[in-house]
Amino acid sequence: MSEAPPTRSRPRPSRRAGRRSGIRTRPQLFGRVVRTSTWLHRVPTGWKLAAIAVIGLTALVFRNGVVNWSIFVVLVILGLSARLPLRRFLIPWAYAAVLVAIVLGLQYLFGTLVAGLVVAGTVFACVQAALLLTLTTTIGELLDAFAVIVSPLRRLGVDPEVIALTASLMVRAISHLSGLLAEADRAARARGLETSLKARVVPAILRSVKYAQDTGRALDARGIVD
Q: What are the transmembrane regions (predicted)?
């Protein structure tokens, strides 16, 4: 009796293989939650939201470059102390740097460079605060906290669960639409139309409208909202 040939397990597709096959994951605008449990993960979501509100108000009220950049440095140190990967900060910092460069250029031409540095510190401080929140808090936890915050509106006849659902759809839509824009840009480049605004924008708009219609039909079919 002959022995059956040994079966070979199929290797799992790696990220490199996915890139070689042309499959790319859509960008996560708010960053993916770091699953490693740290002290920052264990801080209640409500306290995190309150801290962000205080940081934003402080940056806007004082309008001092030293204060705002100091807040940014402290937030970076807090993130590193929670063992959050530094690479998770780099891409959002790059996006913020583009905005800051534009602001600095405008301030250099029409205002003062000091005012531009104040705005830059405000932007980076707020971005870093939002990063610490999104990297250590799941969407579900954020929505639960948001539902608690808006719960007093129930006395006015407003359903907090509907507001939380709206916020959830908004968060998911932002990430989805950013992915559609990236896909339209890659498709335009593949056809040699990277300089055509129409080739990059129109497909993204059409697919965005379809996404909104599909979402509306799904909600209506389930009778979630009137």
A: 45-63, 69-86, 93-110, 116-135
Q: Kindly state the tokens that stand for 130.
A: 């939002």
120-142 per-position pLDDT tens digit: 888 898 888 888 888 888 877 87
CB atoms within 10 A of CB 57: 10
Cα–Cα distance measured from residue 116 to residue 55, given in angstroms and rounded to the nearest whole number: 19
Specify burial of residue 94 (Cβ count, 10 A radius: 0-12, 13-18, 19+).
exposed
Cβ atoms of 28 and 175 closer than 8 Å: yes
Angle at 58 between CA 54 and CA 64, to 5 degrees: 160
Compute the distance between CA of residue 215 and CA of residue 225 in angstroms, rounded to an integer.
12
Question: How far is residue 65 from each of residues 73, 107, 121, 183, measured CA to CA in Å?
Answer: 12, 14, 6, 38
The residue type of 52 is: I
DSSP 151: G
- Which SS3 state, helix, strand or coil, does residue 16 take? helix
Threshold 0.85, pTM exceeds: no
* CA 89/CA 169 separation, integer angstroms: 25
